[in-house]
C-alpha cells in the first residue's frame, strides 16, 4: 500500500476511535508527585563489579568544585574552557569527584584510599553513608591501602576529633611517600602553602606511626593487588594492578584528574602535580599501557563510578565508561 497523507490521517482516526465493551472504571486521581527540589540527595553512591573472583565496590565521596582558572598550569584558560565545553561541562569550575574502592576477597575487605572524611568540601563527606549503604561496616575492614598522602585520600582514616575510623585495619602506605611526607627537614623547608599538607599527614598517621606498614613497588600488597610506581603527582604516588583469574583492573589513582581534561590532553599539568614533567611522563606511559592492553581502569576523580577503558585518540586518549549493569 502506498502511504499518503490521507491513509495516515485515516489510520490515526481509527486508532483514536473508542473501543467497544464496558466503560473503564473510574478512579480517584492520585495526588501530584512533589518536586524534590535542588539539593536533594541522590540514591546511595556505590557500584559493584567483578574482577575475576574479586568483588569490587566503588564508593563515592561526593565532589568538590575547583575554579578553572589556574587549574592547568601549562595551557591557556581558553584552551581549558574549550575542552570543558566539548565535554559538556561548565567553563568556570571543574566538578572533581572522589571515588574509593573496596575489594572483597571471600569476606576479607581491603579499602583503597579513604576519601575526605569530615574535612572536605561541603559537597563531599558522603563516603561513610554510602559505605554503610553498600552493606559494609568500618569494623569489617581488614586493610587500608593508601596510594598517596593528599588529604582527599587519607583524611577518611581519622576524624577531626582524632577517632580512628577503621579500628581493625592494617594501614599500608608507599615507602617513598612516607619517606617524603614524614621528613621533618622537608616540612621545615617547605613553602608556607605546603606546610598544611605535611601537618595533615602527621595528624592522620602520627598516632599509629609505629604500626603503619610501608610497601615497596612491584610487590603484592594484598593478594592479587600489586603496587606500580607512578611518581610525579607526588613523590611516592602509586597505582595498582588488580588481578584475579582472567580479570585485570588498573587502578590509576591520581594519574589523571578529570578525564575530560587529562586523558584527552595527557601533556597538560594539573596544579596538584608536584613534579609536572614526571607526572606527564607517568601519565602517558600508563594511559598508553591501558589502551594497548585494552585493560579496564578505575580513576579516583572520574565521574562515578569511575571505571571504564582508555582508547587512543589522536595525540591523546579518551575515557570510555563501562556500560552500567544492574547485576554484579
From TrEMBL:
Highest taxon of the lineage? Bacteria
SMART domains named among the record's database cross-references: Lactamase_B (SM00849)
Q: Which UniProt keywords apply?
A: Hydrolase, Metal-binding, Signal, Zinc
Q: Where is the Metallo-beta-lactamase domain?
A: 96-301
Q: Which residues form the signal peptide?
A: 1-25
* Record flagged with keyword Repeat: no
> Which InterPro entries did the record assign?
MBL_superfamily_lactonases (IPR051013), Metallo-B-lactamas (IPR001279), RibonucZ/Hydroxyglut_hydro (IPR036866), TAT_signal (IPR006311)
Establish whether keyword Zinc is in the entry. yes
Q: Which Pfam families match?
A: Lactamase_B
Report the sequence similarity comment from the record: Belongs to the metallo-beta-lactamase superfamily.
In its UniProt entry, what is this protein called? Answer: MBL fold metallo-hydrolase
The beginning of the lineage is:
Bacteria, Pseudomonadati, Pseudomonadota, Alphaproteobacteria, Hyphomicrobiales
Amino acid at each position: 500500500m502506498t502511504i499518503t497523507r490521507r491513509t495516515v490521517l485515516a489510520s490515526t482516526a481509527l486508532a483514536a476511535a473508542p473501543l467497544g465493551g464496558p466503560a473503564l472504571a473510574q478512579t480517584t486521581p492520585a495526588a501530584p508527585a512533589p518536586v524534590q527540589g535542588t539539593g536533594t540527595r541522590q540514591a546511595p553512591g556505590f557500584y559493584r563489579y567483578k574482577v575475576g573472583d574479586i568483588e569490587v565496590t566503588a564508593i563515592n565521596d561526593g565532589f568538590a568544585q575547583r575554579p578553572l582558572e589556574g587549574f592547568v598550569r601549562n595551557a591557556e584558560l581558553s584552551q581549558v574552557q574549550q575542552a570543558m565545553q566539548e565535554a559538556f561541562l561548565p567553563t568556570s569550575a571543574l566538578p572533581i569527584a572522589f571515588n574509593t574502592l573496596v575489594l572483597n576477597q571471600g569476606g576479607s575487605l581491603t579499602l583503597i584510599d579513604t576519601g575526605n572524611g569530615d574535612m572536605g568540601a561541603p559537597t563531599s563527606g558522603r563516603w561513610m553513608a554510602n559505605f554503610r549503604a553498600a552493606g559494609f561496616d568500618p569494623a569489617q575492614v581488614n586493610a587500608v591501602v593508601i596510594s598517596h598522602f593528599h588529604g582527599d585520600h587519607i583524611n577518611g582514616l581519622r576524624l577531626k576529633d582524632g577517632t580512628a575510623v577503621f579500628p581493625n585495619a592494617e594501614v599500608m602506605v608507599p615507602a617513598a611517600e612516607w619517606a617524603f611526607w614524614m621528613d621533618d627537614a622537608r616540612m621545615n623547608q617547605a613553602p608556607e602553602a605546603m606546610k598544611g599538607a605535611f601537618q595533615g599527614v602527621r595528624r592522620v598517621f602520627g598516632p599509629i606511626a609505629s604500626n603503619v606498614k610501608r610497601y615497596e613497588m612491584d610487590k603484592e600488597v594484598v593478594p592479587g593487588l600489586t603496587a606500580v610506581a607512578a611518581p610525579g603527582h607526588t613523590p611516592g604516588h602509586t597505582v595498582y594492578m588488580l588481578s584475579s583469574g582472567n580479570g585485570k583492573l588498573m587502578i590509576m589513582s591520581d594519574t589523571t584528574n578529570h578525564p575530560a581534561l587529562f586523558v584527552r590532553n595527557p601533556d597538560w599539568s594539573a596544579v596538584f602535580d608536584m613534579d609536572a614533567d614526571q607526572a606527564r611522563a607517568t601519565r602517558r606511559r600508563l594511559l598508553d599501557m591501558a589502551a594497548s592492553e585494552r585493560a579496564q581502569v578505575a580513576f579516583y576523580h572520574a565521574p562515578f563510578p569511575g571505571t571504564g577503558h582508555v582508547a587512543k585518540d589522536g595525540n591523546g586518549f579518551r575515557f570510555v565508561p563501562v556500560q552500567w549493569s544492574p547485576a554484579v
